[in-house]
Amino acid sequence: MTTQPSKDLEVFPNPQTTSDYTIHIRIPEFTCLCPKTGQPDFAELRIAYVPDRLCVELKSLKLYAWSFRDRGAFHEAVTNEILADLVAATDPNFMRLTAEFNVRGGVYTTVVADHRADGWSPPERIELP
User: Which of 5, 82, 89, 93 is 20 to 30 Å from the Cα of 59, by its Cα?
Assistant: First the structure.
């Protein structure tokens, strides 16, 4: 069993390509370092995506998130880097990454970054009674 962080994101074929569906993933223990102070920053990452042909494998995603633990990164930069890496690996129809950072110095930060594939539009939302 791998017990080391890794930047490799593994994927597998989408088992349901005939219709859109959404995958929600929560990573409640994300950490990186403040690039100014070197102190740890803690966040919950929430990923929501509509896959096209590929899905991200969860163990590799866990090890990927772990790879940021000892890296200095501004919240905005790390959020967009993670989204870009996930998009490069999976080429989804749509992906949203919400990074909700814990309080630091009395300030909470939430960064939301989106990707939408060219020509893709979401299905009409259905409100149920």
Answer: 93
Give dist(CA 25, CA 18) in Å, integer.
22
In angstroms, the CA 107 to CA 58 distance is: 31
Does residue 122 lie in a domain region? no
The answer as to whether 63 is a domain residue is yes
| CATH number of the domain where residue 44 is located | 3.30.1130.10
Separation between Cα atoms, residue 24 and residue 13, nearest integer Å: 17
pLDDT in tens, 70-101: 999 999 999 999 999 999 999 999 999 999 99
34 part of the active site: yes
Q: Is 41 a catalytic residue?
A: yes
